[in-house]
Amino acid sequence: MMSETRTRLAALFLSLTLALSTQTLAAPLQEGPEAGPDPMVFRVCSDANNMPFSNASGEGFENKIAELLAAKLGKSIAYTWYPNSIGFVRNTLGARKCDIIMGMPEGSELALLTNPYYATAYALVFKPGAGLDGVTSLSDPRLKDKRIGIVAGTPPSDAMIANGLMPLAKPYPLAVDTRVDSSPQAMMKDLNAGAIDAGVLWGPIAGYYAMRANPKLDLVLLTQEPQGPRMSFRIAMAVRRQDKEFKRLLDRLIQENQPEIDAILLSYGVPLLDAQNRPITAAVPAHKE
Description:
By secondary structure, the protein is an alpha/beta fold. The protein has 8 helices and 14 strands. It folds into 2 domains: 2-118 and 234-280, Periplasmic binding protein-like II (D-Maltodextrin-Binding Protein, domain 2, 3-Layer(aba) Sandwich); 120-221, Periplasmic binding protein-like II (D-Maltodextrin-Binding Protein, domain 2, 3-Layer(aba) Sandwich), CATH 3.40.190. 29% of the residues lie in helices and 21% in strands. The strands form 3 sheets. Strands 1, 4, 5, 6, 7, 8, 9, 10, 11 and 12 form a 10-stranded mixed beta sheet that branches. The protein has a two-stranded antiparallel ribbon with strand order 2-3. It starts with a helix and ends in a 9-residue tail after the last strand. The model is unreliable at 1-31 and 283-289 (pLDDT under 50).
């Protein structure tokens, strides 16, 4: 079950955002003795249309964190753009077109991972005044008659099945071409129009859209589910397995710059968790594009 959950999470992050399918994105990288990362350029593997994570204009939080790290290293920054889909790792990091993927779930076996730089969870979002104040779990009986949006194949789907919430649920596809489609945007449009009563999304996406809604949406992190797969995950950066020195350098940079990294994440509405799954909060201004 844990291996399946990790595979699903990797697929979600790399095909929807980055979180989860039963499909694998690529076989573990088979690497030779080639030279390490570019000494002058911080080369990032990314999706050009995958907000709030990244886009070609550099507006995502992964873009901002990459810029921070590049500046600390005294490097310029360059991107290899590839849609978050099957083959992302193989065709970017594996093809040596870039040296780092900014977001990968801890436990993924697709590459060598840094220490995690943030933790978050799936979240339930709904309009204020929807009668769901105080809901902390998908097992809450007040959800029984609600139409809930869910990205098919993600861990909350199992919890919704276990709690009898699927008959009224509206599924949205996991595997989409981010150049032309977005399941989170479609779900938020339906929530705003009243076609659904609530939505379940990966935390960074839920937080980003909840913050941008007018009025802002209520958000509940699903960290108290009594059954089903885990809902919270720690996120790291990914490099090629042979780039161990680069991994150690990134670990040091993450540790030294964690407050700045947290500030970037929080400014995008990313709901952060500490090691005990407690929310991390800070007074930071809302991100403006």
